[in-house]
Amino acid sequence: MPLLALGINHQTAPVEIREKVTFTPPQVDEALRQARAQPGVDEAVIVSTCNRTELYCAVSEDYPGSLGRWLADFHGLDGADLEPYLYQHRDDEAVQHLFRVASGLDSMVLGEPQILGQLKSAFETAREAASVKTVLGRLFQHGFTVAKKVRTDTEIGSNPVSVAFAAVSLSKQIFGDLQPLQALMIGAGETIELAARHLKSQQIGGITIANRTVERAESLAEELGGEAISIGQIPDHLPRADIVISSTASQLPILGKGATETALKKRRHRPIFMVDLAVPRDIEPQVSELDDVYLYTVDDLKEVIDENRRSREQAAEEAMDIIEVEVSHFEHWLRTHQSADEIRQLRQNADALKQECLDKALTRLDKGEDPRKVLESLAANLGNKFLHGPTLRMRQAIKEDDDDTIQLLHQLFRGK
User: Fold this and answer.
1) Residue 404's domain spans which residues?
2) Among 103, 121, 202, 250, which residue's CB has the most CB atoms within a 10 Å radius?
């Protein structure tokens, strides 16, 4: 069964395109159902993060290539507008792609560990939706094992970096000493937690966590010695925020130009450093038009991230050696699995032919016909039915001078 990986990521599409094809958590179950309903699609896993939206599928040989159009249709887009940003990998290339993604080799921050947790979450969602069977189940579990091996056997995870770390590094470059400053963190997920911990390690003066679920914000704020507020309280706290880092799953902007402009007036135009790590974006792009605001998106962090990437390139080469070996191991398993399916199908076909002939013979015996003649007829019918397909193929091979097929058929039916 062929494998397919299709999607867009930070390398092929800018944030304004990526944010149009993200799947929110409530959408995923329905999206999985629709994806599996596409012709030739048997299994599906959807991975949707800030930097990538990908579909991993087990498809039949006659899969017509409809998932790209479906992805565009699901999000109300013109397929022609999305097509230039899409990539597609088949079979061993799809396996290699997943293993690279799981190991952090395809991330904006080379070797970052967050993507592995996101893959595991996506896989679990698909499994609970009955969208995963044997092939993708084995593929993803193998991918998780490869990621662990890469992290254990190489230095890819040394001096850990992430988008959150890059955001804090940039703030330090801009402000220098962070001790006199106040940070407002919007969201309370893993990315915000990582950024908040990095800020805390840099002796930030104070941290305020804003989240829709205040209880989650309170839990994180208490751990970091900060303050928790609701999303609705952001305008009241924005004037005293020197650093704003946002990463939520909101489909609409949380922070607009008007609220930011009001905050700047109250700050007497002291600058605010803002980092929007969300896709779709949490902060309206128009905020960047304001004086005294330094607004960065995940794409803008690429230069900071590139500095960290250079120190990991050697480890990435070692990781690719591991991945190449593991791809061949998975391909061996897949061939064995497929051959077992083919053998099972062959035996089922043979059993069906045998049963058909046997049923006819038993019917004739029940009617009192001569047992000898019934047995002779049974043997002849079995032989004819089993040889019908190979005979047609042999005639075709002789006509086409296909010596390999002729010899194979001779070997099969001579037992050599």
Assistant:
1) 338-414
2) 103
Distance CA 197, CA 18 (A): 27
Tell me the C-alpha to C-alpha distance, in Å, between residue 22 and each of 28, 55, 87, 202, 298: 10, 12, 16, 33, 15
Q: Two tokens at 407?
A: 């010899």
Report how far residue 208's alpha carbon sits from residue 336's, in angstroms, rounded to the nearest whole number.
55
Q: Are 184 and 234 contained in the same domain?
A: yes
Q: CATH no. for residue 141?
A: 3.30.460.30
CA distance 275 to 243: 8
Q: Are residues 134 and 186 in the same domain?
A: no
297 in the same domain as 343: no
**Is 357 a residue of the active site?**
no
Catalytic residue among 50, 102, 245, 327: 50
The pTM (predicted TM-score) of the whole model is 0.65
pLDDT by 10s per residue, the chain, length 416: 689 999 999 999 999 999 999 999 999 999 999 999 999 999 999 999 989 999 999 999 889 989 999 999 999 999 999 999 999 999 999 999 999 999 999 988 788 888 999 999 999 999 999 999 999 999 999 999 999 999 999 988 776 567 888 888 888 888 889 999 999 999 998 889 989 998 998 999 999 999 999 999 999 999 999 999 999 999 999 999 999 999 998 999 999 999 999 999 999 989 999 999 998 999 999 999 999 999 999 888 877 777 777 778 888 999 999 999 999 999 988 888 776 566 666 677 777 887 887 888 788 888 888 888 878 888 887 777 777 777 777 788 788 888 877 777 677 666 54
Whether 245 is in a domain gets the answer yes
